[in-house]
Design brief:
43 residues; 1 helix
Amino acid sequence: MHSSMSPCTCARNRLFQATENAFSTISAARRPPVSIRGEGHSK
């Protein structure tokens, strides 16, 4: 991402990343440990 982006987008991107991080953590805790290595993930 370019630094010329507005702070609004920056904050939104941070929030989105934090949400995705928490989401992946939750799904990792609910799924078997194997999926943590990203075997069933394409992201």
